[in-house]
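Question thread 4412

I'm putting together a teaching handout and wanted feedback from people who do this every day. The idea is simple: show students a protein as raw sequence, then show them the structure tokens that encode its fold, then repeat with a second protein so they can compare. Below is the first pair exactly as I plan to print it.
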Amino acid sequence: MNQRFTYEDFKVIYCHASQIEGNYELLDGEERSRYERYLSKDKKEEFLKGRAFLKNNLAESLGLSAKSISFSYTKNGKPYLSEIYSPHICHFNLSHTKDYFLLAISTKPIGVDIETLRSVEMDEMIHFLSPQELKSLKSISYEKDRIIQLYKLFTSKEAFIKATDKKYPLEQISFKWSKLNTQWELDSPQVDCQFHSLRITDELEGMVCCLQNT
């Protein structure tokens, strides 16, 4: 069963893959070609379920039929609904990991990420952490808390990248640790956005990034 939560600027829906029924009939021509290119049966099933989850929830939100929904794509490959769906234009983003799908729908540009928590050495993450971020993480005494905050930071960056459609290179995106609020705050670039952390299960960390004033 889908789990739904509504916030001021967006709503999020997540679901275990076992509860989603893939439907080849929902795919348009481009999606069918993409589906056939997958060599792995698991990848094909994942794609079918992801598209079914996405289109069925968009259809319910917008009052459309799932089969009528066909996506356009930005130059970076992010799907969106073109102006032919006006006035049903909305922003959405989908993420998947460990048999869970996470979807956000909003009237504003949005990005989501969901990741499976696992133990990791901080130095292994140096390719995506700024020196200050790494220093802040290493200052957290308890390993469990450090891992949780590492994934909150990682998912924040991924959600921001997806919300902005890769407008900013990873090396330009940095966060600062707020001891007062015990959370990560976007430090650079200066973009007005809202982050919302989601604990899907004890092993899954999710994050939503919704751009403001766009």
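The second pair follows. I'd like the answer to focus on this one:
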Amino acid sequence: MAFPISFGHFDVPDFSDHSPSCLVFSNQEASKKPFMFSHFLIKHKNFLPRVAQQWNSTKFDGTSMFVLSKKLKSLKLGLKELSKDNFLDLENRVKEAHLHLFDCQ
């Protein structure tokens, strides 16, 4: 528990009955979570305009691969905002809509 992202690697014995091993200790959590892209965002009416606006508004200098990498990273914030604005707390919003429908009926 004190070293949450530590690990050990144990090789198979080679010429003796001892197994070589390597232990890596770290008590720090990973600082960044990977970006998870939800495919349902593609069908949202604001997806393509948001991507186009973000893609065309950023300018980077460097190799083509560097520019592509930076532009993709810059899209991350815009897509997170789109997801947050439209799909945050979706389960509770569905319950509220169901209750509203029930009241109307």
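Top answer:
Good format. For the second protein you could add a caption like this: The longest strand covers residues 7-10. The first helix runs from residue 47 to 57.
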